Amino acid sequence: MLDDLKEDTIAIKVGGKFKLTTLIQKRLVQLNRGAPPLVDCPGKPTMATVIEEIMTDKIYLDSTDKVVLIPDDAPDLEKMLAEEVPDFDE
Fold first, then answer.
1. How far is CA 48 from CA 34, 55, 81, in A?
2. pLDDT 10s digits, 39-61
3. More confident residue, 57 or 6
4. Using CA atoms in the order 69, 73, 74, 77, what is the torsion angle rounded to 10 degrees?
5. Exposure string over 38-66, b if 16+ CB within 10 A, otherwise e
6. Secondary structure class of 70 (helix, strand, coil)
7. pLDDT at residue number 53
8. If you write DSSP's letter for every residue of 1-32 in order, what string do you get?
9. 24 vs 19: CA distance, rounded Å
10. What per-residue confidence (pLDDT) applies to 72?
11. At 88, is the pLDDT very low, low, confident or very high (cuts 50, 70, 90)?
């Protein structure tokens, strides 16, 4: 995953090397403060986690250099499983 940094494709994807560095740094701060990672990562999130989030289009920088997370529109599975299932046999 860190090999992606050696290629210009990831820098071009986010708008340049400066923006890439800014995005990585800001997202790592968010993750270190307890924000959940948007991709599967075993253990503590690292720079590789952020690179994967960028490569899978989960995060980007807006025009004011704020990290924007792409919303996940999938229903909350845990909430659905916790809800009581109606009894249709009655």
1. 17, 10, 32
2. 988 889 899 999 999 999 999 99
3. 57
4. 80
5. bbebeeebeeebbbbbbeeebbbbeeeee
6. coil
7. 93
8. -GGGGGSHHHHHHHTSHHHHHHHHHHHHHHHH
9. 9
10. 65
11. low
With 0.70 as the threshold, say if the pTM is over it: yes
Cα dihedral: 72, 77, 82, 85 (round 10): 120
The amino acid at residue 38 is: L
First to last CA, the chain: 54
- DSSP 8-state class, residue 67: E
- What is the token pair recorded at 77? 């599975």
